Protein 1
Amino acid sequence: MRRILNILVFSVILCVVGILFLQLHVKRTSRDVIVTDISQLKVAYTGIVLGASVKPDKTLSLILQDRVDAALLAYENKKFKKFLLSGDHGEKNYDEVNAMKSYLNNKGVPDEDIFLDHAGFDTYDTMYRARDVFQVKNAIVFTQEFHLPRAIYIGKNMGLNVQGYVADKHEYPGNSHFTRREWLANMKAWIELNIKKKPTYSGKVIPITGDSKLSHDKS
């Protein structure tokens, strides 16, 4: 009985050490390419905006608006050419990507510079589809500081040349919860990468260097 207990204790310790090591590894992988100053960004072809919640009136939540505004600032400073707006549009009545597109259109960004990924249901799917569906090679990722290390970690492990720009402009309700959730999300990402999980949807190839209208909703 004592031997079994020792094995269980050792297993728990080993598991905790493994989890801690993974968190450090994710941060170490990304820390050199995450910036807060727009001038420190290297020029890339694509700016990937990671989706977040949209309000019932189809306006952007604060956390999503800050991501889009950060990307818009970089675009206006000629740090990238094409937007890839990736989010949840799995249901007819819930649409993150077109909400982002409308916001950018109202700011003067033309349709030709905006690509939509309607099946970016999570960060893993977004990066996978950026590479395989949209043929992205190099990109700047726009999201909050708590989220960027995982996004960069996934992107790098998929062979993408990625940088991250911190989009934090406000204090967000539940910020501490987001940080704690990243521990579990990092573990999920590690598993998905190692089993080479397929995204929820693959779809036909729409090169980011081609016609953006192929990614838009049909009128």
Protein 2
Amino acid sequence: MRSLMPTYVLQVSYALVLIHLVAAKLPSDIKRCVAGDGKCIIENINVIFNKKNQGDESFGLTKLEPFTMDNFSIRQDPASPVAIYLTLNNPVVYGSKNVRATKVKGFGKTPEGRHEILLEAPYISMLSDYVIDGKVLILPIKGEGRSNFTLVEPKMKIVIDATSRTKDGKIFMDVKDLRVECKPKRVALHFENLFNGDKALGENINSFLNENWNGIFIEMKAPLYDAISKQIKVGTAKVFSATPYDEIFEI
């Protein structure tokens, strides 16, 4: 489940890249927005995901569909209802081409304060190699193979708290805090080769996971949000450090 959130987080990071690298050589279908013009900012984000998801080196956009992620692991407290150690290797994420922004707040005449971006999509799916061991609610789980995590109709909010900094007469945004929240309509999970390929046990566990997805998601979302937030903060901070805020927007 963790892999899905980083997917949204990375997608939003690249959306921010587009929004903020507007002062130089933008493609003809990308507008330079007046600061605080939410409609214009939303349109630019949607152009990134829907029309430029294969990347565009002219403004540093990396390929988004599919999106390749770094390996990562998550370890839950043994006392938690979801007490697992999960490693995901070679994760590849699909569905970003259908992501769209629905609302933004902030990005006004000053970078100081709070900025928010709301996103939604029909689905986001992450395919990867996995290794898992532990307990989910009342059942043990153990296996190694291929996995599929899909967020169905997810809605996501990225919250950025920022301050301003002046250097060489230019204003920059410094990202002080970044938080991620996600509310999927449903989460679908599938692990191949559970319990060394025991088909009956594997099917039962996969069915159990999908029937109880909400309880599993509730238990795991806090550490997932923390990990995702740290990852997106690094990428977003690099963008704002490299590009003056007063060249990003007309202020």
